[in-house]
Amino acid sequence: MTFSDESLRLPSAAIPDGCHDWTTARAADWSAALPPRWTFLRVRRAVAAGLATLVLCVGALVAMAGGLWPFVAAGFAVYVLWVLARPELVWVGAPLLLFALAAEASSKSWALTALGVVVVLGSWALVAVRLRARGEQVRRALEAAGGVTAPVPGADAPVRRGQLLFVLGFVALGLAVLTGSTAGLWGAAEDQEGAWSATVFLAGLGATALTSAWLGRQRAVALRGAAVPVLRVLVRDDAQGSTEVYAADDLAAERPLFTVELTSFDEDDEDDEQGAEDEVEEGAVDDDELQRVLLGLDDDTLGPVREAVLYGAPFDGAEVLVVSADEDPEQPPLTEWSAGPVRPLLPDAGRRRVAKHREQAADSLQLELRGRELAEQQAAVGQVRRWRAGWLDWLATAFLVQWGLWLVWGWFDEPGFSSWTVAFIPLLGLYGAVRVPMKLAWRVTADGSGVWVTGLRGPHHVPWDDLRFVRRRSVELKIDWQDGGWAVSAPRWTWLQRRRGLTHPYDALAAELTAMRLDATLRPTGESSAADRGRPVWPVAAVLAVVWVVALVAAR
């Protein structure tokens, strides 16, 4: 990844007449209208989902102990999700929760009820501040556009925004109906309380997905309905698949204004689908182009800075359309609709994001150099190169086994088994029986013919020409080839590694193997033996599974 003062140029024909640059000064004025950080302006989806799940678990335990109605317990979990990810729904959720708390106040602890009321009212006020700021964001964006508007390209194309969310919403509602209709079949009263909590939570998730789909679709339709404000900006694709938007004169990409997920233009999609059908009929599918697309989906580097035109006034939660220069200068401009809402970045957050990009770029470059150096050393020797599980993998496995045994011990310590416990414990043990030997005995071997990776049934051979990429992403090491993939995970502490100057074993493996993949002269020349490649792990997995089943039968 490099930071350049040169951006890919957008053809003048793709820029509406009179379209103004969204300058740094104008963009800073727009950012000044954003609500404070404490309004939960930008919370990662994983964090929002994790907090909602944590609240659900705590609420379910309190409900089982008789401290809350299951409806209120699950309602709080859904409400947390709304506050963090879908603030528009808080206007409905907050009054409902307050009504439910008031209805059960006479039979529940006053301290718990008071705490719930304070949480609801406080979060409601935070959301009100966040939503009110949207109007000022729109006004300042319109000022920056200077009254220049233009119709969006392809306004007559079918609106596909929200289709997936509609499906997910109805699936969640179906699961809620199923769970609620079978809640009375659970043996213990506590399990029935938990089933009703799950029912309400699933119903809330379904309502959230459906509302998000409806809002996104309505805003996308409104964007097509009339001429909209246009602004010249710069864009760049980040490593997570989102698009970062910058001021038009921020050539060094120092301060992203917001991110938005984009999807290909509808009419182009239809043309591509029709073209693909024609190619299949003629037997002329371009495998190289498909390979390029698939590699792009897994690319973890930043894209180049590109000139673009932004259609629509941006605000927190807005729908927009972006026409940008293609990374390939021989291709026409890209026209992409937002597949998710605009997510603004506060100035400090934007600068930290760029600083993180630079640190990651420096780390990646250092790893590439080290990987090539290691590969050159091995190539000089000409031996087979082997990697295997180390102490981090053993530590991760120990935590996994300890957690599983602790969980199962807690269930066995209960006076009786519930139906879901009886069904879940054997499945948990069988999963562990497969994962434990894989995590402890994985092995990757590189020789002159390709790469060998550990599998349940034995080592799998991947020719060098079939190897697509090897990379570490988060806690996972992933090796991908044309017909499949392989992955293993272990703990990672980025801050500690950077502070101590340490290199994660997965990073070193990925860097060295990538150097071999890209440069044939760095590959080992020898041929590996059966002992080098490792052995099948299914016999160990089978033994562990049998031991687990025998232990369960004996415990019963």
Structure overview:
The chain is of the alpha+beta class and 556 residues long. Helix content is 54%, strand content 14%. The strands form 3 sheets. Strands 1, 2, 3, 4, 5, 6, 7, 8, 9 and 10 form a 10-stranded mixed beta sheet that branches. 33% of the residues are buried.
Strand content: 5-15%
* N-to-C span: 58 Å
Total number of β-strand segments?
Answer: 17
Tell me about the largest β-sheet: 10 strands, mixed
What gross morphology would you assign?
Answer: flat
Query: Helical region count?
Result: 16
Return the average pLDDT rounded to an integer.
80
Radius of gyration: 27 Å
Q: Low-confidence segments, ≥5 residues, pLDDT <50?
A: 266-298
Helix content: 40-55%
Derived from helix and strand composition plus strand pairing, the structural class reads: alpha+beta
SSE order and pairing:
Layout (H helix, E strand, L loop, with lengths): L19 E2 L2 H9 L12 H20 L5 H16 L4 H15 L5 H36 L3 E2 L12 H19 L7 H37 L2 E10 L5 E5 L10 E3 L1 E3 L1 H17 L4 H11 L8 E6 L9 E4 L9 E5 L4 E2 L2 H35 L3 E4 L2 H22 L6 H23 L1 E5 L2 E4 L6 E4 L3 E7 L2 E6 L2 E6 L4 H7 L4 H14 L11 H4 L4 H18 L1
Parallel strand pairs: 1-3
Antiparallel strand pairs: 2-3, 3-4, 3-7, 4-5, 5-10, 6-9, 7-8, 8-9, 11-12, 12-13, 13-14, 15-16, 16-17
Helix pairs in contact: 1-5, 2-3, 2-7, 3-4, 3-7, 4-5, 6-7, 10-14, 11-12, 12-16
Summarize the structure.
The chain has 556 residues and is of the alpha+beta class. 54% of the residues lie in helices and 14% in strands.
